[in-house]
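Working notes for the structural subgroup meeting. M.R. asked for a predicted model of this chain before we commit to crystallization trials. I am recording the input and output together here so anyone reviewing the notebook later can reproduce the run.

Input as submitted:
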Amino acid sequence: MKKNLRRFLLLMALGVAYGFMYVMPYMKSSFYDQMIAAMGCTNAQLGSLMSYYAIACTASYLPGGWIGDKFNPKPVLLVSIFGQALLSFLFVFTYRSYAMAVIIWFLMGLTGGFAFWPAMMKGIRMTGTDEEQGRIYGIFEALNGFASLLLSFVMLGVMAIVSNADLVTGFKDALVSMGILSAISGLLVLWLMPKESAFGANTNLEEERKAFNMKDYISAFKIPGVWLMAILVWSYVTVSAVASYLTPYSTNILGMSAALAASIGTLRTYGCRMIGGPIGGVLADKTFHSVSKEQVLGQAACAVTLGVFLILPAGTSGGILIVLLLLVGVSMFLCKGTYFSIQAELGIPTRVSATAVAIATLIGYIPDMFVHTMFGNWLDAYGDSGYTRIIIYGVGTAVLGIIAAVIAVAQSRRVAARGAEA
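Returned structure, recorded in C-alpha cell form:
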C-alpha cells in the first residue's frame, strides 16, 4: 500500500474513532431539549454532568500523557473505544437515574481522557513531517467531524423515524445506535492502525520510547509553548461550551423548532469541522506559513461571531440565524483544527509530544469542570437574561485567546531564530 494512502486511511480510522468517542459526553450540544425531557433533570443537573466528566478527564491526563509517550498507543486506543461503546449500552438501561448518569459521565472521562487523548494526538502528529502539521491536523479534524456528524444524524433519524414521535423510545434507540457505531470504529482502528505508526521524516517511535524518561516528562512543564497551547485550548473549550447554549437560545428566545435547532446544532458542532478544520490547516501551512498567525484569525473570528448574538434583534429571520450559527462553528474549528499542530512551531520536541498535549489539555479543559454548571445556574436563576451573560463570557474568553495567539507568534519567531543559529 502506498505511503500516502496508508497515512490517509490511518487518519480516517483515528478520525472516526475520535469523532465517535466524544459524541455521547457532549451530546447536549445537539440534543439539549431531548435530554432534559427524557432524563427529567434540571438545566443545572445536565450542565453538571460535564463537570464530572471534566474532573475525571483532568485527573487522568497527566498519567495518560506519560503512558502515551512511553508505550504503544494502539492497545490503549482500543480499550478506550470499546469501553466507550459499553458505556453507551449501559446508559440505555439507566438514563432515568441521575446518579447513574453521573457515574457514566465520570467513566467516559476515563475512556475519552486518560491515555486515549494524548496517544491519539501523538499518533496524528507522527503521520506527517513538521512542515505538514497544519494540514495533517486539519484533515483529521474534517474526518472526525464527518464521523461525528454521521453519528449525530443517525441518532436524529432514529429519534424521528423509529420512535414514532415517542421521545423516550427514540432516545433509547439512538443510544443503542451510538454504541454499535462506536464499536465499529474500534474495529476500524484495529484493522487500519499499524503497530508502529511513524511516518514523519524525523520520527522514530521505538527510539523515542527508549529515550523518554522522567526528566523529559518534567521538562515538558517548563516549555513556554506548552502553556500558550493550553490557553488556546482553554479559549476553544469555553467558546464551544457557550456555543452549545445557542441551541436552547434558538428555541427558547428566537422561536426555532427543537428539531431544527438540534439539526443546526449538530451541523455547527460536527459538520463545521469539515470546513473549519481543513481551511485552518491550509491557512496555517500555505497562506500564513504559521499556525500561530492562523490562531490569531481563528480566535478573532470566535469573538466576532459570538458577539453578533449580543446585538441580534428579535424576529431575525431563520435563514440569517442559521448562517450565523454555522459561522460560529466554522470559527471554532479554525481554532481547534490547528491548536495542537502548533507544537513544532513553539519548539516542543516530538519525544514529549503526548505529555505536552496532556498538560495543555489538563489546563485547557478546566472550563468544562465549571462553566456548564455555571451556565445552567445562570439560566435557572436569571431566565432568558442568562443567555446574555453566557455570550458575554464567551466573547471575553475569545479575546484572551487572541492575546495568547499574538504571544505565540512572537514565541514562534524566537524559536525559528534559535533554529537558524543552530
